[in-house]
Design a protein that fits this description.
mainly alpha, 7 helices, 2 domains
């Protein structure tokens, strides 16, 4: 029951703070900008909808994604990105097999973050 009350309070807070009016304005601005740039409005709206959903859920930007984003903005795509993103204090304590697994998982996360970065950049959200 407390969860329901918390959700209701958050929804009421969003209504009072003009959250939805701001989101609608943002949708329209970004959609018209996308149209002017020749980008699919539907893709932009879809990405913005995902961002709004994460705001409502209270999710914060992924710390790893922010590291990747900073790396890409400062240096671009580099050949040693996995090495730069590796947490050395964790990596040094792992066995050989665990290091291999850690590197593969890090590589997978990097590819997902890179794909997200490219999508956001193409849609003009960055």
């Amino acid at each position: 029951m407390d969860d329901l009350k918390t959700i209701a309070r958050a929804a009421k807070s969003r209504l009072k703070s003009n959250f939805w009016a701001e989101q609608e304005k943002s949708f329209k601005e970004n959609a018209s900008e996308a149209k002017n740039r020749g980008i699919s409005e539907l893709k932009v709206k879809s990405s913005l909808a995902d961002m709004v959903k994460s705001k409502i859920k209270g999710e914060k930007e992924d710390e790893f994604y922010l590291k990747v984003k900073k790396l890409l903005e400062t240096e671009g795509e580099v050949s040693d990105a996995i090495g730069r993103l590796t947490d050395r204090s964790v990596y040094e304590k792992l066995t050989y097999e665990e290091r291999q697994r850690y590197t593969l998982e890090l590589s997978s996360k990097y590819l997902i973050a890179l794909q997200r970065y490219k999508k956001e950049k193409a849609l003009g959200l960055i």
